[in-house]
């Protein structure tokens, strides 16, 4: 999740379609076993790869997500197919090929799409029209009067408040009509969330890991019933040799990555973990046979460095 240095179509390394520059829609992957459900993240022993979180929209969102940052073409499709074979349930970024060959029904997956803001203030009607045109690309085999998106996010708060208001109005219209089941934001700070007109976002996706905990945003989201998705939960491996992390990993006989994913889950976040490698996809899901003790959670909590601990572009202070 980095701010691109070139054209906005490079945002986040996602599969971004330039529908009418600078307005764009891109696709995320999220694990989705929709039958399991938790209401209190504190019940850690009951967590599984099938655990979901009920959003303020009433729909259920998977807790653990699979990202495909910078993955393209066959690499992306192979990662999706591998994950499906290993038991994941997820959205499909490449025109649904992996899903159509898996035997899974549409309601067995959770599709998340992002609207990529440009540098200018858009018209709300234009945003709405372009979001509607994203449906055939995401679900080519589904009749358009039956197609829907589980979660639509505004990728960032840029360029300004006027743009955010116009974009949010378009998402809210889609939610009211029902083809956007849940709507949310990404990289929004407390000021952005407070200024946003109704409805309250279902999700705010921000960088979250022990070294960048953004506690003010998390606290506000909790107060308002906004689910928190954590991107860069593995800190891009920049802290893999941290002495606190390595000691805790050794204690539980787990990898440093598994410890960070488990920390995120026990904090009540929805970690979005990137991988295109079969063994990593499997390893990242093997985090449900142990629970971090309170003292280990506290020690990881103490690693917080605030903004200095961030490993990605962070626009939460955008005016």
From TrEMBL:
<dbReference type="GO" id="GO:0016491">
    <property type="term" value="F:oxidoreductase activity"/>
</dbReference>
<dbReference type="InterPro" id="IPR020471">
    <property type="entry name" value="AKR"/>
</dbReference>
<feature type="domain" description="NADP-dependent oxidoreductase">
    <location>
        <begin position="96"/>
        <end position="304"/>
    </location>
</feature>
<dbReference type="InterPro" id="IPR036812">
    <property type="entry name" value="NAD(P)_OxRdtase_dom_sf"/>
</dbReference>
<dbReference type="Pfam" id="PF00248">
    <property type="entry name" value="Aldo_ket_red"/>
</dbReference>
<comment type="similarity">
    <text>Belongs to the aldo/keto reductase family.</text>
</comment>
<keyword id="KW-0560">Oxidoreductase</keyword>
<protein>
    <submittedName>
        <fullName>Aldo-keto reductase</fullName>
    </submittedName>
</protein>
<dbReference type="InterPro" id="IPR023210">
    <property type="entry name" value="NADP_OxRdtase_dom"/>
</dbReference>
């Amino acid at each position: 999740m980095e701010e691109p240095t070139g054209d906005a179509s490079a945002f986040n390394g996602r599969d971004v379609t330039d529908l009418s520059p600078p307005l764009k829609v891109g696709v995320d992957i999220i694990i989705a076993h929709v039958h399991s459900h938790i209401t209190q993240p504190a019940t850690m022993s009951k967590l599984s790869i099938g655990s979901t979180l009920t959003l303020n929209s009433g729909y259920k969102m998977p807790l653990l997500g699979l990202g495909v940052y910078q993955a393209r073409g066959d690499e992306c499709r192979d990662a999706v197919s591998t994950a499906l074979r290993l038991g994941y349930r997820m959205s499909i970024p490449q025109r649904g090929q992996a899903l159509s060959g898996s035997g899974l029904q549409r309601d067995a997956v959770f599709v998340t799409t992002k609207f990529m803001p440009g540098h200018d203030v858009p018209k709300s009607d234009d945003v709405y029209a372009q979001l509607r045109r994203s449906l055939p690309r995401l679900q080519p085999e589904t009749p358009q009067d039956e197609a829907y998106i589980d979660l639509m996010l505004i990728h960032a708060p840029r360029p300004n408040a006027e743009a955010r208001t116009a974009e949010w109005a378009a998402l809210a219209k889609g939610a009211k009509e029902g083809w956007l089941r849940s709507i949310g934001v990404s990289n929004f700070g407390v000021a952005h969330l407070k200024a946003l007109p109704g409805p309250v976002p279902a999700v705010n996706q921000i960088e979250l890991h022990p070294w960048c905990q953004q506690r003010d945003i998390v606290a506000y989201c909790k107060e308002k019933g906004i689910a928190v998705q954590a991107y860069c939960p593995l800190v891009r491996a920049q802290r893999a040799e941290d002495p606190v992390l390595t000691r805790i990993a050794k204690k539980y006989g787990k990898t440093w990555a598994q410890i960070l994913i488990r920390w995120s889950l026990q904090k009540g976040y929805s970690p979005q973990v990137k991988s295109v490698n079969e063994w990593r996809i499997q390893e990242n899901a093997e985090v449900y046979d142990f629970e971090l003790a309170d003292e280990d959670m506290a020690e990881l909590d103490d690693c917080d460095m605030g903004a200095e601990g961030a490993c990605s572009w962070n626009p939460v202070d955008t005016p």
